[in-house]
Amino acid sequence: MTQAGRQGSPRNSSGRNNPQRSTSQGGKSAGGFRGGAPKRGGGFGSDRPQRAPKPREERFIDPDLASDGAQQGRSAADPKAARPSSRKPAARKPGAKKAPGTPGALKPKPRTGAPGAAASRAFGSERFGQNLGPVRRPSRKKGPRGDVPQSELHDADGVRLQKVMASAGVASRRVCEEMIAEGRVEVDGQVVTELGVRVDPKTAVIHVDGLRIQLDENLVYMVFNKPKGVVSTMEDPEGRPCISDFLKSNKNTGERMFHVGRLDVATEGLLLLTNDGELANRLTHPSYEVPKTYLVQVRGPFPQGIGAQLKEGVELEDGFASVDSFRLVDSTPGHVLIEVVLHSGKNRIVRRLFDAVGFPVLRLVRVKVGPIGLGDQRQGSIRNLGKQEVGHLLASVGL
């Protein structure tokens, strides 16, 4: 192509030497378009008539979708709030029509504002110990709250009830006041609903939702996962390993501890340690029938009917004995793992029961006493119980 052809081409007409492009660039700089919006009355496009902006159309709001007037006002002010959600309704989701608990059914969402939420539950914010849920206590006869003589519970020299509860770690003082107003707090067996009641922390017995609050800081409650070969005593004259050998590294070494019940040398598992003499006596007394859960390993195969025989009862040398429940946990070639629950505290009762039916115990582990379980606690370790666990343990024996 010749030089004249290159100059007359459309591509070259928008080049640097194009006078129209230079004029338009000059208009941009003069009108300030590069630095912001064009100024009225000058610059590029100033000869065009100014048009009034179109009014913004308000979005239609369905009054049936708005719960109240405040929501309507919020939706009108915020167009995004009135925009329909792109999420599928719950009825269209897969598994919505299936019954709860069946495979493929939707899982219910937890209610954060429910009375059983962590914020309003006794010791709900506690990170120590295990969460055992609500206390199961027999329902009492509900009478009119006005008949409760709350003036007799008031101690002018005492401490406000909500402050005592908050100091014990139940919840914040505001939440404790809500618990009192809702009638969930008992002092010495009587429901208290007045916020001005003062109590003596040294003598008052306080329950929240049936959960006993232990106000004596000198009382200690611990769980020991006893290994095989350890004697269930604090001292052994023969020099065998005992419980005190594992307590040396614990900060409560100076306290005189009681072991609740016994486990023979070959049996492993849970032992409760405490300096609360009243609790230790009740846990070991047969009248309270505190259940104990064991895992029993025997040689297999295990024939049917033996479990029913153990639940019906077996005659032993010191009387008739039985288990409360029997469950087959696992079965491998040559071995069977069984879970049994019983409340009897007789010596070597589990081993003697299985010996009587012809299946000697190969390994025995106690995994639970009352509401307290071992969980994933390491063997040979000792841990302090949480305040919620202590409350459940006290409630299991009527304290």
Notes on the protein architecture:
With about 400 residues, the protein is α+β, with helices and mostly antiparallel strands. It contains twelve helices and 17 strands. The protein has helices at about 5-10, 10-15, 20-30, 70-75, 80, 160-165, 175-180, 245, 275-285, 305-310, 350-355, 385-395, and strands spanning about 160, 185, 190, 200, 205-210, 210, 220-225, 260, 270-275, 290-300, 315, 320, 325-330, 335-340, 365-370, 370-375, 380-385. Strands 7, 8, 9, 10, 13, 14, 15, 16 and 17 form a nine-stranded mixed sheet that branches. The chain has a four-stranded antiparallel sheet with strand order 3-2-5-6. Strand 8 (about 260) and strand 9 (about 270-275) form a beta hairpin.
Q: What structural class is derived from the secondary structure elements?
A: alpha+beta
Strand-and-helix sequence, N→C?
HHHHHEHHEEEEEEHEEHEHEEEEHEEEH
Q: How many helical elements?
A: 12
Unreliable segments of 5+ consecutive residues: 1-46, 60-77, 110-119, 138-148
* Overall average residue pLDDT: 74
What's the gyration radius in Å?
38 Å
Strand content bin: 15-25%
Largest sheet: 9 strands, mixed
Through-space gap between termini:
108 Å
General shape: globular
Strand count: 17
Q: Which bin fits the share of residues in helices?
A: 10-25%
Give the structure's gist in a few sentences.
The protein has 399 residues and is α+β, with helices and mostly antiparallel strands. It contains twelve helices and 17 strands. The chain is globular, with a radius of gyration of 38 Å.
Which structural traits does this protein have?
399 residues; alpha+beta; 4-stranded antiparallel sheet; globular
